[in-house]
Amino acid sequence: MTDKLPTWMRAALSEPRLAAYLAATGGDPGAARLLYWWNAEVSGAFLGPLHSLELTLRNALHDELAKVHGRADWWAQAPLNAHGRRLVDEARRKRSRRSRRTVTADDLVAELSFGFWVSLLSSGDSYDRRFWVPALHRAFPHYSGRRDRLHRSFESMLLFRNKISHHEPIHHRPLEADHAKIYELLEYLSPAMASETRALDRVPTVLQSREDTCSGRRPPQF
Fold first, then answer.
1. What pLDDT does residue 1 have?
2. Which own/partner contact pairs does 130-137 have at CB distance under 8 Å and 24+ positions apart?
3. Do residues 78 and 65 touch, judged by C-beta distance below 8 A?
4. CB 16, CB 5: distance < 8 Å
5. For the chain, domain boundaries
6. Which of these, 221, 209, 74, 204, lies nearest to 135 by C-alpha position?
7. Per-residue pLDDT in tens (0 to 9) along the chain, 222 residues
8. Most buried of 26, 46, 150, 184 (most Cβ within 10 A)?
9. Using CA atoms, how far apart are residues 186 and 142, in angstroms rounded to an integer?
10. Alpha helices in 28-174 (DSSP H)
11. How many whole angstroms separate alpha carbon 56 and alpha carbon 185?
């Protein structure tokens, strides 16, 4: 059915990618085209709340670990596993390639991936004893539940963010629940940041527009 989509769209976006949207719309090329662009629109809308969540998490975890170790480059003496040390080394190399000056602790914090920070909440390699108990539980002043539940929630948001970053379909997900999860986690870290982010958030508007957009009554927009 992809031969019924515009030639330019098939060439620019690829038939395998578009096939998923055709399948979701019963092979209707017009509906598939609108669903594709609505998916791009809602993905873009989620970037703001996810931005707030990722940065608030990394800075909260960094601050607590810097306090415990008494140094901004806490990773130099923290008991990271081999994967964690590799991520730190990769981040340092990436930042060094982009700048001739010495890489600072702040540079490295900014370079480390969302996945790195989420991994610090896991139980692997005794991270629960090495990081959560002495330091990281204090990064969540408004949370009193189990560490493993918190880790699973952040992992789900990491996977969600990665799908958006790789321009994958998210239209089939329970997006209202994903949206609520972002704010649940933000509230654990910083209610003030959660409030500020809500005031700027356009996800609810885009979600409400789905039917109008996918029926052609409203044009999709980024």
1. 42
2. 130/78, 130/79, 131/65, 131/78, 134/68, 135/64, 135/65, 135/67, 135/68, 136/61, 136/64, 136/65
3. yes
4. no
5. 2-214
6. 74
7. 445 899 999 999 999 999 999 999 999 999 999 999 999 999 999 999 999 999 999 999 999 999 999 999 999 999 999 999 999 999 999 999 987 788 999 999 999 999 999 999 999 899 999 999 999 999 999 999 999 999 999 999 999 999 999 999 999 999 999 999 999 999 999 999 999 999 999 999 999 999 999 999 999 998
8. 46
9. 10
10. 29-69, 82-98, 105-111, 114-119, 127, 147-165
11. 10
Q: Which residues contact residue 18 at a Cβ distance below 8 angstroms, ignoring those fewer than 6 apart?
A: 2, 5, 9, 10, 32, 36
Please answer whether residues 138 and 189 qualify as being in contact, where contact means their C-beta atoms are separated by less than 8 angstroms.
Answer: no
Reported pTM: 0.94
- The pair of structure tokens assigned to 31 is 């509906």
Distances 28 to 4, 169, 179 between C-alpha atoms, Å: 9, 17, 29
Burial class (CB in 10 A: 0-12, 13-18, 19+), 12: exposed
Amino acid 79 reads P
Cα distance between residue 162 and residue 159, in whole Å: 5
170: its two tokens: 């998210």
Cα–Cα distance measured from residue 39 to residue 214, given in angstroms and rounded to the nearest whole number: 10
Q: Token pair of 221, please?
A: 């927009």
* 172, two tokens: 């089939």
